[in-house]
Specification:
The chain has 18 helices and 14 strands. By secondary structure, the protein is an alpha/beta fold.
Length: about 575
Protein backbone atom coordinates (compact mmCIF):
# COMPACT_ATOMS: atom_id res chain seq x y z
CA UNK A 1 0.00 0.00 0.00
CA UNK A 2 2.80 2.38 0.89
CA UNK A 3 4.58 1.71 -2.39
CA UNK A 4 1.41 2.44 -4.36
CA UNK A 5 0.94 5.75 -2.59
CA UNK A 6 4.52 6.74 -3.22
CA UNK A 7 4.14 5.84 -6.89
CA UNK A 8 0.99 7.95 -7.11
CA UNK A 9 2.72 10.92 -5.52
CA UNK A 10 5.59 10.63 -7.99
CA UNK A 11 3.40 10.26 -11.08
CA UNK A 12 0.85 12.98 -10.41
CA UNK A 13 3.32 15.89 -10.71
CA UNK A 14 4.68 14.36 -13.89
CA UNK A 15 1.20 14.16 -15.36
CA UNK A 16 0.47 17.86 -14.88
CA UNK A 17 2.80 19.09 -17.66
CA UNK A 18 1.33 16.49 -19.99
CA UNK A 19 -2.22 17.66 -19.33
CA UNK A 20 -1.13 21.27 -19.68
CA UNK A 21 0.59 20.47 -22.99
CA UNK A 22 -2.64 18.95 -24.28
CA UNK A 23 -4.52 22.09 -23.33
CA UNK A 24 -1.87 24.28 -24.97
CA UNK A 25 -2.11 22.25 -28.14
CA UNK A 26 -5.86 22.86 -28.23
CA UNK A 27 -5.38 26.57 -27.58
CA UNK A 28 -2.76 27.03 -30.24
CA UNK A 29 0.20 27.71 -27.98
CA UNK A 30 2.99 29.25 -30.03
CA UNK A 31 5.71 27.04 -28.54
CA UNK A 32 4.02 23.67 -29.07
CA UNK A 33 5.28 21.20 -31.65
CA UNK A 34 3.54 21.83 -34.97
CA UNK A 35 1.77 18.99 -36.71
CA UNK A 36 2.77 18.23 -40.30
CA UNK A 37 1.04 20.50 -42.82
CA UNK A 38 -0.39 17.59 -44.78
CA UNK A 39 -2.03 16.30 -41.61
CA UNK A 40 -3.49 19.68 -40.73
CA UNK A 41 -4.91 20.05 -44.24
CA UNK A 42 -6.53 16.64 -43.99
CA UNK A 43 -7.81 17.46 -40.50
CA UNK A 44 -9.47 20.66 -41.72
CA UNK A 45 -11.20 18.75 -44.48
CA UNK A 46 -12.26 15.97 -42.11
CA UNK A 47 -14.02 18.49 -39.89
CA UNK A 48 -16.37 19.94 -42.50
CA UNK A 49 -18.99 17.48 -41.32
CA UNK A 50 -21.49 15.55 -43.40
CA UNK A 51 -23.15 13.02 -41.19
CA UNK A 52 -21.23 10.21 -42.89
CA UNK A 53 -19.62 7.60 -40.68
CA UNK A 54 -15.94 7.48 -39.84
CA UNK A 55 -15.33 4.61 -42.25
CA UNK A 56 -16.45 6.77 -45.16
CA UNK A 57 -14.11 9.53 -44.05
CA UNK A 58 -11.14 7.20 -43.95
CA UNK A 59 -11.93 5.71 -47.33
CA UNK A 60 -12.33 9.14 -48.92
CA UNK A 61 -8.77 10.08 -47.90
CA UNK A 62 -7.06 6.78 -48.64
CA UNK A 63 -5.31 8.11 -51.75
CA UNK A 64 -4.00 11.52 -50.74
CA UNK A 65 -4.48 14.04 -47.97
CA UNK A 66 -5.72 16.76 -50.31
CA UNK A 67 -8.68 16.18 -52.63
CA UNK A 68 -8.90 16.53 -56.38
CA UNK A 69 -10.89 19.50 -57.71
CA UNK A 70 -12.80 19.74 -60.99
CA UNK A 71 -14.47 23.01 -62.01
CA UNK A 72 -17.01 22.84 -64.86
CA UNK A 73 -17.65 26.32 -66.24
CA UNK A 74 -20.34 27.01 -68.85
CA UNK A 75 -20.65 30.16 -70.97
CA UNK A 76 -23.79 32.35 -70.83
CA UNK A 77 -25.89 29.78 -68.97
CA UNK A 78 -29.02 31.11 -67.31
CA UNK A 79 -31.07 30.10 -64.30
CA UNK A 80 -34.14 32.24 -64.84
CA UNK A 81 -34.85 30.85 -68.32
CA UNK A 82 -34.99 27.25 -67.08
CA UNK A 83 -31.93 25.68 -68.70
CA UNK A 84 -31.14 23.44 -65.70
CA UNK A 85 -34.51 21.72 -66.02
CA UNK A 86 -33.17 19.87 -69.06
CA UNK A 87 -29.83 18.75 -67.57
CA UNK A 88 -30.72 15.65 -65.58
CA UNK A 89 -27.17 14.33 -65.20
CA UNK A 90 -25.95 17.66 -63.86
CA UNK A 91 -28.78 17.98 -61.38
CA UNK A 92 -28.56 14.40 -60.13
CA UNK A 93 -24.81 13.73 -60.16
CA UNK A 94 -23.71 17.12 -58.79
CA UNK A 95 -26.67 19.05 -57.38
CA UNK A 96 -28.60 16.25 -55.69
CA UNK A 97 -25.35 14.58 -54.61
CA UNK A 98 -24.05 17.74 -52.97
CA UNK A 99 -25.01 21.35 -52.28
CA UNK A 100 -27.23 23.55 -54.45
CA UNK A 101 -26.78 27.31 -54.06
CA UNK A 102 -30.11 28.90 -54.97
CA UNK A 103 -28.86 32.49 -54.87
CA UNK A 104 -25.62 32.48 -56.83
CA UNK A 105 -24.70 35.61 -58.75
CA UNK A 106 -21.89 37.18 -60.71
CA UNK A 107 -20.67 40.67 -59.97
CA UNK A 108 -20.31 41.61 -63.65
CA UNK A 109 -22.59 39.93 -66.24
CA UNK A 110 -20.00 39.94 -69.02
CA UNK A 111 -17.63 37.16 -70.12
CA UNK A 112 -14.09 38.44 -69.69
CA UNK A 113 -14.60 40.58 -66.55
CA UNK A 114 -16.51 37.78 -64.83
CA UNK A 115 -13.96 35.13 -65.77
CA UNK A 116 -11.17 37.35 -64.50
CA UNK A 117 -13.08 37.66 -61.20
CA UNK A 118 -13.51 33.88 -61.06
CA UNK A 119 -9.77 33.35 -61.51
CA UNK A 120 -8.62 36.00 -59.03
CA UNK A 121 -11.42 36.36 -56.47
CA UNK A 122 -11.47 40.12 -57.14
CA UNK A 123 -14.17 42.57 -58.09
CA UNK A 124 -13.76 44.13 -61.52
CA UNK A 125 -12.70 47.48 -60.09
CA UNK A 126 -9.78 45.69 -58.42
CA UNK A 127 -8.48 43.66 -61.39
CA UNK A 128 -9.33 46.34 -64.00
CA UNK A 129 -10.65 44.01 -66.70
CA UNK A 130 -13.54 46.34 -67.42
CA UNK A 131 -15.10 44.82 -70.55
CA UNK A 132 -14.51 42.09 -73.13
CA UNK A 133 -11.99 44.43 -74.76
CA UNK A 134 -10.53 46.65 -72.05
CA UNK A 135 -7.51 44.83 -70.58
CA UNK A 136 -9.02 41.43 -71.44
CA UNK A 137 -5.86 39.30 -71.48
CA UNK A 138 -3.91 42.56 -71.87
CA UNK A 139 -0.50 43.42 -70.50
CA UNK A 140 -1.82 44.86 -67.24
CA UNK A 141 -3.74 41.64 -66.65
CA UNK A 142 -0.71 39.49 -67.48
CA UNK A 143 1.76 41.41 -65.36
CA UNK A 144 -0.32 42.19 -62.27
CA UNK A 145 -3.18 39.71 -61.93
CA UNK A 146 -2.62 36.58 -64.03
CA UNK A 147 0.15 35.52 -61.68
CA UNK A 148 -2.31 35.54 -58.75
CA UNK A 149 -5.05 33.17 -59.92
CA UNK A 150 -6.23 30.09 -58.04
CA UNK A 151 -4.26 28.08 -60.61
CA UNK A 152 -0.94 29.61 -59.58
CA UNK A 153 -1.67 29.26 -55.87
CA UNK A 154 -2.60 25.59 -56.12
CA UNK A 155 0.28 24.75 -58.43
CA UNK A 156 2.74 26.35 -56.03
CA UNK A 157 1.19 24.25 -53.26
CA UNK A 158 1.86 20.99 -55.05
CA UNK A 159 -1.28 20.46 -57.09
CA UNK A 160 -1.05 19.26 -60.68
CA UNK A 161 -3.16 21.75 -62.65
CA UNK A 162 -4.92 21.47 -66.01
CA UNK A 163 -7.10 23.88 -67.98
CA UNK A 164 -9.30 22.94 -70.97
CA UNK A 165 -11.43 25.24 -73.11
CA UNK A 166 -12.34 28.90 -73.19
CA UNK A 167 -10.09 31.21 -71.19
CA UNK A 168 -10.55 34.93 -71.86
CA UNK A 169 -12.20 36.47 -74.92
CA UNK A 170 -9.04 38.24 -76.12
CA UNK A 171 -6.60 35.42 -75.38
CA UNK A 172 -4.54 35.11 -78.59
CA UNK A 173 -2.67 31.86 -77.91
CA UNK A 174 0.75 33.49 -77.95
CA UNK A 175 1.66 32.20 -74.49
CA UNK A 176 0.65 29.69 -71.83
CA UNK A 177 -0.75 31.45 -68.76
CA UNK A 178 1.14 30.83 -65.51
CA UNK A 179 -0.19 28.27 -63.09
CA UNK A 180 -1.13 25.48 -65.49
CA UNK A 181 0.84 22.27 -66.02
CA UNK A 182 -1.49 21.07 -68.77
CA UNK A 183 -2.85 23.83 -70.98
CA UNK A 184 -5.43 23.36 -73.74
CA UNK A 185 -6.77 26.87 -74.17
CA UNK A 186 -9.23 28.10 -76.79
CA UNK A 187 -7.99 31.09 -78.79
CA UNK A 188 -10.47 33.96 -78.63
CA UNK A 189 -14.21 33.47 -78.06
CA UNK A 190 -16.45 30.42 -77.85
CA UNK A 191 -16.90 28.24 -80.91
CA UNK A 192 -17.94 24.63 -81.48
CA UNK A 193 -16.22 24.03 -84.82
CA UNK A 194 -13.41 25.67 -86.81
CA UNK A 195 -11.36 26.89 -83.88
CA UNK A 196 -7.73 26.85 -82.73
CA UNK A 197 -6.36 25.56 -79.43
CA UNK A 198 -3.06 26.30 -77.75
CA UNK A 199 -2.05 22.85 -76.51
CA UNK A 200 0.93 23.35 -74.21
CA UNK A 201 2.42 25.99 -76.50
CA UNK A 202 1.59 24.31 -79.80
CA UNK A 203 -1.25 25.66 -81.95
CA UNK A 204 -3.79 23.01 -82.93
CA UNK A 205 -6.37 23.75 -85.63
CA UNK A 206 -9.75 21.99 -85.71
CA UNK A 207 -12.34 21.75 -88.48
CA UNK A 208 -16.02 20.87 -88.69
CA UNK A 209 -16.03 17.09 -88.17
CA UNK A 210 -18.41 16.31 -85.30
CA UNK A 211 -16.59 13.16 -84.21
CA UNK A 212 -13.19 14.89 -84.08
CA UNK A 213 -13.81 18.57 -83.54
CA UNK A 214 -16.94 19.31 -81.52
CA UNK A 215 -15.35 21.38 -78.77
CA UNK A 216 -17.47 20.29 -75.79
CA UNK A 217 -16.71 16.65 -76.59
CA UNK A 218 -13.01 17.41 -77.20
CA UNK A 219 -12.82 18.97 -73.73
CA UNK A 220 -14.62 16.00 -72.14
CA UNK A 221 -12.54 13.32 -73.87
CA UNK A 222 -9.13 14.96 -73.56
CA UNK A 223 -9.54 16.03 -69.95
CA UNK A 224 -10.73 12.66 -68.71
CA UNK A 225 -8.01 10.87 -70.65
CA UNK A 226 -5.48 13.14 -68.94
CA UNK A 227 -7.07 12.52 -65.53
CA UNK A 228 -6.90 8.74 -65.99
CA UNK A 229 -3.31 8.77 -67.22
CA UNK A 230 -2.16 11.08 -64.46
CA UNK A 231 -3.74 9.02 -61.70
CA UNK A 232 -2.18 5.83 -63.04
CA UNK A 233 1.28 7.25 -62.43
CA UNK A 234 0.64 9.76 -59.63
CA UNK A 235 -1.97 8.04 -57.51
CA UNK A 236 -1.33 10.10 -54.39
CA UNK A 237 -1.00 13.54 -55.99
CA UNK A 238 -3.96 15.96 -56.01
CA UNK A 239 -5.21 17.34 -59.31
CA UNK A 240 -7.01 20.59 -60.18
CA UNK A 241 -8.88 20.73 -63.50
CA UNK A 242 -10.96 23.46 -65.14
CA UNK A 243 -13.31 22.36 -67.93
CA UNK A 244 -14.50 25.57 -69.60
CA UNK A 245 -17.05 24.63 -72.27
CA UNK A 246 -18.51 26.94 -74.95
CA UNK A 247 -22.17 26.04 -74.39
CA UNK A 248 -24.66 27.61 -74.52
CA UNK A 249 -22.85 30.64 -75.97
CA UNK A 250 -23.38 31.52 -79.63
CA UNK A 251 -23.19 30.35 -82.36
CA UNK A 252 -25.32 27.73 -80.52
CA UNK A 253 -24.27 24.75 -82.63
CA UNK A 254 -25.89 21.74 -81.01
CA UNK A 255 -24.39 18.29 -81.51
CA UNK A 256 -26.14 16.29 -84.29
CA UNK A 257 -27.83 13.83 -81.88
CA UNK A 258 -29.69 16.70 -80.19
CA UNK A 259 -30.57 19.03 -83.05
CA UNK A 260 -34.25 18.02 -83.17
CA UNK A 261 -34.95 18.36 -79.44
CA UNK A 262 -36.92 21.02 -77.54
CA UNK A 263 -39.13 22.12 -80.43
CA UNK A 264 -42.00 23.24 -78.18
CA UNK A 265 -40.06 24.44 -75.12
CA UNK A 266 -40.82 28.03 -74.09
CA UNK A 267 -39.48 28.19 -70.53
CA UNK A 268 -37.74 31.44 -71.45
CA UNK A 269 -41.10 33.23 -71.58
CA UNK A 270 -40.97 34.38 -67.97
CA UNK A 271 -43.15 36.99 -66.24
CA UNK A 272 -40.93 39.79 -67.58
CA UNK A 273 -40.95 38.44 -71.14
CA UNK A 274 -41.70 41.26 -73.62
CA UNK A 275 -42.68 43.55 -70.77
CA UNK A 276 -41.71 46.79 -72.45
CA UNK A 277 -41.25 49.65 -72.10
CA UNK A 278 -40.48 49.55 -68.38
CA UNK A 279 -40.53 53.07 -67.01
CA UNK A 280 -39.55 51.98 -63.50
CA UNK A 281 -36.21 50.67 -64.80
CA UNK A 282 -33.10 52.48 -66.03
CA UNK A 283 -33.12 54.49 -69.25
CA UNK A 284 -32.48 51.58 -71.66
CA UNK A 285 -35.57 49.78 -70.39
CA UNK A 286 -37.62 52.94 -70.80
CA UNK A 287 -36.71 53.22 -74.49
CA UNK A 288 -37.02 49.51 -75.33
CA UNK A 289 -40.19 48.66 -77.26
CA UNK A 290 -42.22 45.47 -77.39
CA UNK A 291 -41.02 42.70 -79.65
CA UNK A 292 -43.07 41.71 -82.65
CA UNK A 293 -44.00 38.17 -83.77
CA UNK A 294 -40.74 37.75 -85.70
CA UNK A 295 -38.61 38.69 -82.69
CA UNK A 296 -40.64 36.42 -80.42
CA UNK A 297 -40.22 33.50 -82.83
CA UNK A 298 -36.49 34.20 -82.92
CA UNK A 299 -36.24 33.95 -79.12
CA UNK A 300 -38.09 30.61 -79.24
CA UNK A 301 -35.64 29.21 -81.80
CA UNK A 302 -32.64 30.51 -79.89
CA UNK A 303 -33.86 28.93 -76.65
CA UNK A 304 -34.17 25.58 -78.40
CA UNK A 305 -30.66 25.82 -79.82
CA UNK A 306 -29.17 26.84 -76.47
CA UNK A 307 -30.75 23.86 -74.75
CA UNK A 308 -29.43 21.57 -77.50
CA UNK A 309 -25.84 22.69 -76.86
CA UNK A 310 -26.26 22.03 -73.13
CA UNK A 311 -27.06 18.37 -73.73
CA UNK A 312 -23.41 17.81 -74.61
CA UNK A 313 -22.45 19.49 -71.34
CA UNK A 314 -24.78 17.10 -69.55
CA UNK A 315 -22.94 14.24 -71.28
CA UNK A 316 -19.64 15.73 -70.12
CA UNK A 317 -20.85 15.69 -66.50
CA UNK A 318 -21.75 12.02 -66.83
CA UNK A 319 -18.34 11.24 -68.33
CA UNK A 320 -16.58 13.04 -65.49
CA UNK A 321 -18.62 11.12 -62.93
CA UNK A 322 -17.95 7.75 -64.57
CA UNK A 323 -14.23 8.44 -64.87
CA UNK A 324 -13.97 9.37 -61.20
CA UNK A 325 -16.00 6.36 -60.14
CA UNK A 326 -14.00 3.87 -62.17
CA UNK A 327 -10.69 5.33 -61.00
CA UNK A 328 -11.74 5.18 -57.34
CA UNK A 329 -11.35 8.96 -56.97
CA UNK A 330 -15.03 9.96 -56.74
CA UNK A 331 -15.11 10.16 -52.95
CA UNK A 332 -11.95 12.24 -52.91
CA UNK A 333 -12.92 14.80 -55.56
CA UNK A 334 -14.82 18.07 -55.40
CA UNK A 335 -16.87 18.91 -58.49
CA UNK A 336 -18.05 22.50 -58.92
CA UNK A 337 -20.53 23.51 -61.63
CA UNK A 338 -21.32 27.12 -62.51
CA UNK A 339 -21.40 29.72 -65.30
CA UNK A 340 -19.68 33.03 -65.99
CA UNK A 341 -23.06 34.88 -66.12
CA UNK A 342 -26.71 34.50 -67.09
CA UNK A 343 -28.67 35.47 -70.19
CA UNK A 344 -31.87 37.09 -71.40
CA UNK A 345 -34.21 36.15 -74.23
CA UNK A 346 -37.02 38.68 -74.54
CA UNK A 347 -37.05 39.86 -70.91
CA UNK A 348 -38.24 43.49 -70.77
CA UNK A 349 -38.30 43.42 -74.57
CA UNK A 350 -34.55 42.78 -74.86
CA UNK A 351 -34.23 40.26 -77.67
CA UNK A 352 -31.03 38.50 -76.54
CA UNK A 353 -27.80 39.09 -74.67
CA UNK A 354 -26.43 39.78 -71.20
CA UNK A 355 -24.73 42.63 -69.28
CA UNK A 356 -27.91 43.97 -67.65
CA UNK A 357 -28.13 44.39 -63.84
CA UNK A 358 -31.15 42.11 -63.48
CA UNK A 359 -31.44 38.57 -62.18
CA UNK A 360 -31.77 36.93 -65.58
CA UNK A 361 -28.25 38.19 -66.40
CA UNK A 362 -26.48 38.07 -63.03
CA UNK A 363 -27.95 34.88 -61.53
CA UNK A 364 -26.13 31.65 -62.39
CA UNK A 365 -26.32 27.94 -61.58
CA UNK A 366 -23.98 26.90 -58.79
CA UNK A 367 -23.49 23.39 -57.39
CA UNK A 368 -20.76 21.69 -55.40
CA UNK A 369 -20.28 18.07 -54.41
CA UNK A 370 -17.34 16.47 -52.69
CA UNK A 371 -15.99 14.84 -49.53
CA UNK A 372 -18.04 15.58 -46.42
CA UNK A 373 -20.62 17.67 -48.28
CA UNK A 374 -24.07 16.28 -47.45
CA UNK A 375 -26.35 15.20 -50.24
CA UNK A 376 -29.28 17.33 -51.33
CA UNK A 377 -28.59 20.39 -49.19
CA UNK A 378 -29.91 23.75 -50.44
CA UNK A 379 -28.09 26.90 -49.37
CA UNK A 380 -30.06 30.15 -49.87
CA UNK A 381 -27.32 32.62 -48.89
CA UNK A 382 -25.78 34.84 -51.55
CA UNK A 383 -22.66 33.38 -53.16
CA UNK A 384 -20.70 35.13 -55.89
CA UNK A 385 -18.21 34.39 -58.64
CA UNK A 386 -15.55 36.12 -56.53
CA UNK A 387 -16.05 33.35 -53.93
CA UNK A 388 -14.81 30.63 -56.27
CA UNK A 389 -11.07 31.30 -55.94
CA UNK A 390 -11.14 31.52 -52.11
CA UNK A 391 -13.24 28.35 -51.97
CA UNK A 392 -10.81 26.38 -54.12
CA UNK A 393 -7.90 27.51 -51.97
CA UNK A 394 -9.83 26.56 -48.84
CA UNK A 395 -10.61 23.12 -50.26
CA UNK A 396 -6.88 22.63 -50.89
CA UNK A 397 -6.09 23.64 -47.30
CA UNK A 398 -4.41 26.90 -48.33
CA UNK A 399 -4.77 30.29 -46.64
CA UNK A 400 -6.87 32.78 -48.57
CA UNK A 401 -4.90 35.92 -49.52
CA UNK A 402 -6.05 39.03 -47.74
CA UNK A 403 -6.52 40.97 -50.98
CA UNK A 404 -9.20 38.62 -52.36
CA UNK A 405 -12.67 40.17 -52.22
CA UNK A 406 -14.53 36.85 -52.02
CA UNK A 407 -14.99 34.37 -49.18
CA UNK A 408 -14.86 30.60 -48.98
CA UNK A 409 -18.32 29.07 -49.22
CA UNK A 410 -17.18 26.07 -47.18
CA UNK A 411 -18.10 28.16 -44.13
CA UNK A 412 -21.70 28.18 -45.31
CA UNK A 413 -21.77 24.42 -45.68
CA UNK A 414 -20.06 23.99 -42.32
CA UNK A 415 -22.56 26.27 -40.59
CA UNK A 416 -25.55 24.22 -41.76
CA UNK A 417 -24.38 20.65 -41.22
CA UNK A 418 -23.50 18.25 -38.46
CA UNK A 419 -23.27 19.18 -34.79
CA UNK A 420 -21.83 22.62 -35.55
CA UNK A 421 -24.98 24.27 -36.87
CA UNK A 422 -24.83 27.97 -36.09
CA UNK A 423 -25.85 31.34 -37.39
CA UNK A 424 -23.15 32.68 -39.69
CA UNK A 425 -22.65 36.33 -40.47
CA UNK A 426 -22.82 36.42 -44.26
CA UNK A 427 -23.33 39.06 -46.91
CA UNK A 428 -26.80 40.46 -47.50
CA UNK A 429 -25.88 42.65 -50.46
CA UNK A 430 -23.24 42.72 -53.20
CA UNK A 431 -21.95 45.02 -55.89
CA UNK A 432 -22.92 44.65 -59.55
CA UNK A 433 -20.67 46.67 -61.85
CA UNK A 434 -20.23 46.93 -65.56
CA UNK A 435 -18.27 49.03 -68.02
CA UNK A 436 -15.39 51.46 -67.77
CA UNK A 437 -15.60 53.35 -64.50
CA UNK A 438 -12.20 54.99 -64.93
CA UNK A 439 -13.56 58.07 -66.65
CA UNK A 440 -16.13 58.54 -63.91
CA UNK A 441 -13.54 58.20 -61.14
CA UNK A 442 -10.85 60.23 -62.83
CA UNK A 443 -12.90 63.04 -64.35
CA UNK A 444 -12.00 61.92 -67.87
CA UNK A 445 -8.19 61.76 -67.73
CA UNK A 446 -8.11 57.94 -67.90
CA UNK A 447 -6.29 57.42 -64.59
CA UNK A 448 -7.77 56.49 -61.25
CA UNK A 449 -7.53 59.22 -58.64
CA UNK A 450 -7.15 56.76 -55.78
CA UNK A 451 -6.23 53.14 -55.37
CA UNK A 452 -8.21 50.85 -53.09
CA UNK A 453 -5.54 51.16 -50.40
CA UNK A 454 -5.61 54.95 -50.64
CA UNK A 455 -9.36 54.97 -50.21
CA UNK A 456 -9.03 52.63 -47.22
CA UNK A 457 -6.40 54.88 -45.67
CA UNK A 458 -8.71 57.84 -46.00
CA UNK A 459 -11.60 55.95 -44.44
CA UNK A 460 -9.44 54.71 -41.55
CA UNK A 461 -8.78 58.29 -40.49
CA UNK A 462 -12.37 58.50 -39.29
CA UNK A 463 -12.94 58.19 -35.54
CA UNK A 464 -15.37 55.30 -35.92
CA UNK A 465 -12.48 53.05 -37.03
CA UNK A 466 -9.98 54.04 -34.34
CA UNK A 467 -7.77 51.59 -32.50
CA UNK A 468 -8.04 50.49 -29.74
CA UNK A 469 -11.79 49.99 -29.94
CA UNK A 470 -14.02 52.31 -28.00
CA UNK A 471 -17.32 51.45 -26.35
CA UNK A 472 -19.92 50.18 -28.86
CA UNK A 473 -17.35 50.30 -31.68
CA UNK A 474 -17.76 47.46 -34.16
CA UNK A 475 -14.79 47.84 -36.55
CA UNK A 476 -11.24 49.11 -36.37
CA UNK A 477 -8.43 49.58 -38.91
CA UNK A 478 -5.11 47.83 -39.01
CA UNK A 479 -2.19 47.71 -41.45
CA UNK A 480 -1.04 44.37 -42.89
CA UNK A 481 2.02 44.42 -45.15
CA UNK A 482 1.43 48.08 -45.92
CA UNK A 483 -2.26 47.58 -46.76
CA UNK A 484 -5.13 48.92 -44.69
CA UNK A 485 -7.63 46.29 -43.48
CA UNK A 486 -10.85 46.37 -41.47
CA UNK A 487 -11.14 44.08 -38.46
CA UNK A 488 -14.03 43.42 -36.13
CA UNK A 489 -13.46 44.63 -32.59
CA UNK A 490 -12.31 41.64 -30.60
CA UNK A 491 -14.21 42.41 -27.42
CA UNK A 492 -17.59 43.91 -26.70
CA UNK A 493 -16.76 46.66 -24.20
CA UNK A 494 -19.23 47.65 -21.56
CA UNK A 495 -18.84 49.57 -18.29
CA UNK A 496 -20.18 48.43 -14.93
CA UNK A 497 -21.00 50.65 -11.98
CA UNK A 498 -17.33 51.06 -10.96
CA UNK A 499 -16.20 52.04 -14.43
CA UNK A 500 -14.38 48.75 -15.05
CA UNK A 501 -14.38 47.15 -18.49
CA UNK A 502 -15.46 43.60 -19.03
CA UNK A 503 -15.41 41.14 -21.88
CA UNK A 504 -18.62 39.81 -23.28
CA UNK A 505 -18.74 36.19 -22.10
CA UNK A 506 -19.80 35.04 -25.52
CA UNK A 507 -16.95 34.83 -27.99
CA UNK A 508 -16.27 33.15 -31.28
CA UNK A 509 -13.05 31.40 -32.00
CA UNK A 510 -11.12 31.72 -35.21
CA UNK A 511 -9.91 28.89 -37.34
CA UNK A 512 -9.14 30.97 -40.44
CA UNK A 513 -9.13 34.49 -41.83
CA UNK A 514 -12.89 34.66 -42.34
CA UNK A 515 -13.85 34.29 -38.69
CA UNK A 516 -15.82 37.21 -37.34
CA UNK A 517 -14.26 37.33 -33.86
CA UNK A 518 -11.01 36.17 -32.26
CA UNK A 519 -9.78 35.59 -28.72
CA UNK A 520 -6.76 37.60 -27.62
CA UNK A 521 -3.49 35.64 -27.84
CA UNK A 522 -5.33 32.30 -27.95
CA UNK A 523 -6.35 30.44 -31.07
CA UNK A 524 -8.48 27.33 -30.67
CA UNK A 525 -10.39 25.08 -33.01
CA UNK A 526 -13.85 26.38 -33.81
CA UNK A 527 -15.62 23.21 -32.71
CA UNK A 528 -17.75 23.75 -29.59
CA UNK A 529 -16.97 20.39 -27.89
CA UNK A 530 -13.24 21.25 -27.89
CA UNK A 531 -13.89 24.47 -26.00
CA UNK A 532 -15.95 22.60 -23.44
CA UNK A 533 -13.20 19.98 -23.07
CA UNK A 534 -10.63 22.70 -22.34
CA UNK A 535 -12.80 24.28 -19.66
CA UNK A 536 -13.55 20.92 -18.02
CA UNK A 537 -9.85 19.97 -18.02
CA UNK A 538 -8.98 23.24 -16.29
CA UNK A 539 -11.49 22.41 -13.57
CA UNK A 540 -10.05 18.91 -13.28
CA UNK A 541 -6.53 20.26 -12.71
CA UNK A 542 -7.31 22.99 -10.21
CA UNK A 543 -10.19 21.47 -8.24
CA UNK A 544 -9.47 17.74 -8.32
CA UNK A 545 -5.85 16.91 -9.18
CA UNK A 546 -4.11 19.49 -6.97
CA UNK A 547 -6.22 18.80 -3.84
CA UNK A 548 -5.67 15.08 -4.37
CA UNK A 549 -1.92 15.62 -4.62
CA UNK A 550 -1.95 17.67 -1.40
CA UNK A 551 -3.99 15.01 0.40
CA UNK A 552 -1.63 12.24 -0.70
CA UNK A 553 1.35 14.19 0.52
CA UNK A 554 -0.22 14.76 3.93
CA UNK A 555 -1.22 11.11 4.20
CA UNK A 556 2.27 9.87 3.44
CA UNK A 557 3.82 12.31 5.93
CA UNK A 558 1.42 11.10 8.61
CA UNK A 559 2.45 7.48 7.99
CA UNK A 560 6.15 8.32 8.34
CA UNK A 561 5.49 10.37 11.49
CA UNK A 562 3.69 7.42 13.06
CA UNK A 563 6.70 5.27 12.45
Amino acid sequence: MLLRLLLLVCLLPLSLPVVRAVIDSRRGSSDRQQLPEWYMNDFRMANLGTGRNQGDRLRSNVHNARPNIIVILTDDQDVELGSLQFMNNTQQLIGAAGAMFSNAFVTTPMCCPSRSSILTGLYVHNHNVDTNNENCSGMVWREQYETKTFGTYLKNAGYRTAYYGKYLNRYDGSYTPPGWDEWVGLIHNSRYYNYTLNRNGVLETHGDDYELDYLTDVIANDSMAYFTTFKETHRHDPLLMVLSVPAPHGPEDGAPPYQTMFQDITTHRTASYNLAPSFDKHWIMQWTREMGPVEEFFTDILQQKRLQTLQSVDDLVQKVYETLYLSGELENTYIMFTSDHGYHLGQFGLIKGKSMPYEFDVKVPFMLRGPRIPQGINIPEIVLNIDIAPTLLDIAGLPVPMDMDGRSILKLINSKTGSRRKDLRWRQTFLVERGKMRDVLSGGNGELRQTKNERMEQMCEQSEYQSPCAESQEWYCTVVDGNYRLRRCREKIRSDGEGRRRRNNRCRCSGNRDSDDVIDDITVMSQGPWRRTIARTDLLIYYVTLPLLFWCRCYVESIFSMK
